[in-house]
Amino acid sequence: MDFESKYLKSEEEKFTNNAKLLSKYQNIKIKNMDLNPLTHKVKKISDNYVIPFIYNQNMWKAICKEDGSDIDEFVDEIKLKYVNDVIIVFGFGIGYHIDALHKKYPNNNILVLESDFQIIKIAALYGNLENILSSDKVSIGLFKKEEDLDKILRHYFGNYNRVNFIASAFSNYSELYTYEFEQLVNSLNKLKIDIEKNRQERIKLSEDILNSTDLISIIKKLIDDSEALNQLNIKINMKNILKEINIKSNLIKEGISCLNNLYSFLIGDRNININKAVEKFNQIEVKTQLSPELSAIMDIAMYKYVDILNEDEEIKIRVTDSENITQIKKIMYNLKIYKYRNKCMSSITAELKRLIKQPQR
C-alpha cells in the first residue's frame, strides 16, 4: 500500500497555519508534525484528498472510504428534529465531513469529539481547516476516557437548559475505535438523564415557590432562594435580565405576528407562503432561546404547566413542519404561549425596574 513517507513544503506550511488556528480557536496545542509510523499512516488520493490509516488488529485500516462517498452519506444521514439541535459527531478525520456538515447546517452548533490526537495532527497537515476552526459554531473536544467526555459535555452544555441534540459517528470510527465509541454512548446516555433531571428540578423549583400569583412576590422569593438557585447553578442579575428582555421581547412580538399569519393560513388565507412563514418562525424560535437566568424567572412566572408543555416534543415547531402541514395545527397553542410570554415579559420588566430602584438590603 502506497503511504506517504515525507511531507511537501506546502503541507508543512499548511500544518503551521492549521496549528495556529487550532490553538487560537479550539485551545488545542500541537508541538510537532511527526506521526507515530507504527500506528498511523496517510495515503494521498489527490492533492486535496487524503485518507488516514491506523494499525488495528494486526493490519492497516482506513478511517474512511477512498472515493469519499461516506462524506455525503454521513451528511445526508444527519436529520434535524428541531431547528436548534446541537449536532454531536464522533470523529474529526481530516475535517472534510465537518466542513460539509457545517455548510448544510450553518446555524447549528456542532461538537466534534475525537479520541485520537494523531488524527488531529494528520488533519493539520493535510486539511483545509480555516472555515471550520474559526467558526463559532464548531467546537472540538479531545478525550481519552469517559471522565474526559463527561467534563467536555458538562462544560459545553452548561446546566442543560432545554438541550436538544443528535449524535452520529463518522464512517468507520465506531468500528475502529470501539472502546472509545462505547464510552461516548455511555456519556451521552448520562447527559440525557441529566437533562431530564434538570427539567424536573426546575419544575420542582416552580412548585416550591409558587404560593402566590403576585409576580413581584414570586421574583423576590426566587432571588432570595439562593439554595435552590445554587443547585441549578443560576445567579440572578436583574440588570442583565432587563437587557435581555428588551432584546427578546421584540422577537416575541415578531413571533406573534408570524403565528397570526400561520393561523390565517389555517382558516383559509392561501395568499400566505406557508413554507416561508414556518421557516421564519423556526428562526425566531432559535433567536428567542432564553438565558438560564431569564428562563428560571419565566418558568415561574408562566407556571408549571407551561414549562412542561413548552418542552414537549409534540408542541415544538419541528424542521419538517413546512413539509408536514398537519403539524401546523399546533399554531393556536403556540400563539397562546407567545402572547403569554409577551405579557409576562412586560410584567417582569415593570417589577424588576421597581426592584432595582429599591434600596439594597
UniProtKB/TrEMBL annotation:
Keywords: Coiled coil
Coiled coil location: 181-208
Protein name as catalogued: DUF115 domain-containing protein
